[in-house]
Write a structure and sequence with these properties.
Layout lengths: L1 H10 L2 E8 L2 E10 L4 E9 L16 E7 L6 H7 L3 H7 L2 E4 L35 H4 L2 H15 L1 H4 L2 E11 L1 H12 L6 E5 L11 H10 L11 H7 L11 E7 L5 H5 L1 H11 L4 E6 L6 H19 L3
Parallel strand pairs: 4-5, 4-6, 6-7, 7-8, 8-9
Antiparallel strand pairs: 1-2, 2-3, 3-5
Helix pairs in contact: 3-12, 9-11
Length: 313
């Protein structure tokens, strides 16, 4: 009997904090992750339903959801504190969920602690690892696309407010890579996709971040292109992008020091345009870098872009 009770405590989500912001509430939640075999922490912003906002489909309680994937070295706190998303979420009646970027607190993996800042902790790359050690704990694709939703549904005050049939996805840098690839690998799950400065061609030899991550997480090099947004689009039949999502938005700063050396967003743009002309909007923003100053400046545009798709019938 005690073993059963211990298991329930292990898997039960724990509310770490709740703060009021823009008439809604930001919750940080810790839970055990079976797919990563460790505890994970995520955050979710839920607007107040007391205001008269457009919720869509005539349902005054259930609100759509944007999944935000952060970049290298980040956790859920970076975008919640610096992203400037919640005012527009409140105005639109859209929830905003922010997972971590990697597992933490698991058993040590050989060489993981000696790895550089762009691999390992804080750098899960939103793939399911297949290499020794990492395969047991680094399953961020499953976590982001399946397990996190299951955890949210298990929490009454979230499940009562969120319509999980209306989701969009967005991210920054490594998270932009995640947003694009997870949408492409899960057609129809996300109504719209957007990215700030995404790592758009990580399997390419001139993308050091991608080369390091894929070598470390994926034991078969033939797997790499299946986690590369540019390569995935090239594999699609012409005109089929509309089966994946309704629209894509990318913003890139031209003063971003990683723009030409790591990110290569134009390669994805070119591939997407060949698949479905005019389907994607791509903006190069003069003078902006890779930081949260850039993200916070254009976050309103991205949340509003998703809200249009999420609130349409």
């Amino acid at each position: 009997m005690s073993d059963e009770n211990d298991e329930k405590v292990l898997f039960k989500p724990e509310i770490l904090s709740t703060v009021k912001v823009h008439a809604g509430y930001l919750h940080r939640i810790k839970h055990y992750s079976p797919c990563n075999k460790c505890h994970m922490t995520f955050a979710i912003y839920i607007p107040s339903d007391e205001d008269d906002f457009p919720v869509g489909n005539g349902n005054a309680r259930k609100m759509p959801l944007i999944l935000y994937l952060s970049g290298l070295t980040c956790d859920d706190t970076n975008v919640s504190q610096k992203g400037n998303a919640f005012e527009t979420c409140k105005q639109s009646g859209v929830c905003f969920v922010m997972p971590d970027t990697s597992p933490r607190g698991h058993e040590k993996i050989d060489e993981e602690e000696s790895a550089s800042w762009d691999f390992g902790i804080g750098a899960g790359f939103y793939v399911n690892a297949t290499t020794k050690g990492y395969a047991e704990h680094y399953n961020m694709e499953t976590y982001a696309t399946k397990e996190l939703e299951q955890v949210c549904k298990s929490i009454d005050f979230i499940n009562d407010k969120v319509d999980f049939n209306r989701q969009s996805i967005m991210g920054h840098s490594m998270g932009g890579h995640g947003a694009l690839t997870l949408a492409l690998r899960n057609p129809g799950k996300y109504r719209s996709v957007s990215a700030f400065a995404p790592i758009a061609n990580p399997s390419a030899k001139d993308c050091p971040w991608g080369q390091k991550a894929f070598k470390g997480y994926l034991k078969d090099e033939n797997e790499w292109k299946m986690h590369d947004a540019t390569e995935l689009v090239k594999m699609m039949e012409p005109g089929t992008m509309k089966t994946v999502t309704k629209a894509i938005l990318i913003d890139q700063g031209d003063a971003d020091t990683f723009y030409k050396t790591q990110l290569h967003p134009e390669r994805f743009q070119e591939a997407a345009e060949k698949n479905t002309k005019g389907f994607m909007k791509y903006n190069v923003r003069e003078g902006y870098d890779h930081s949260y100053w850039f993200i916070s400046t254009f976050m309103h545009d991205h949340v509003a872009f998703h809200a249009i798709k999420l609130l349409s019938t």
